[in-house]
Amino acid sequence: MQSYESDVVAWANEQARLIRAGRFDQLDIEHIAEEIEDVGKSEQWELASRMAVLLAHLLKWEYQPARRGASWEITIRSHRKEVAYILYESPSLKGKLVEPRWLEMVWAKAINQANAETGLTNFPDECPWSINDEVLKEAWLPD
Known about the structure:
By secondary structure, the chain is an all-alpha fold. The chain has helices at residues 8-20, 29-63, 70-89, 100-118, 131-135. Helix 2 packs antiparallel against helix 3 and helix 2 crosses helix 4 (100-118). The longest helix has 35 residues, at 29-63. The termini are far apart.
């Protein structure tokens, strides 16, 4: 039997073969459960990453009006679409958008990114925009 620790890809292929063959007694149940949980964590991470980039660009849009340009608009639009796609594929993640602890983490990442790209430090401690009514709305941009 292939070891989970030595080659996870070979292990996964072997586990899939065992499932298809109905050999459930030979499955590595604990590691299979961990891998299934990791799929959910990966989707959460992707959503957080896309949201942080989106929020950082919205911050840059609001706080650097003289530097607004097509590339920022393209990034904002594309990340909105990516977030929409993630939420379409995994509707259970919509709850993350209203979870205070998750939003705090995403906002902190957005501020760090905006700070690194602009040198500005005067961003608000909390997101000033409604996630569903503003941030994710197709045509909305901060003033």
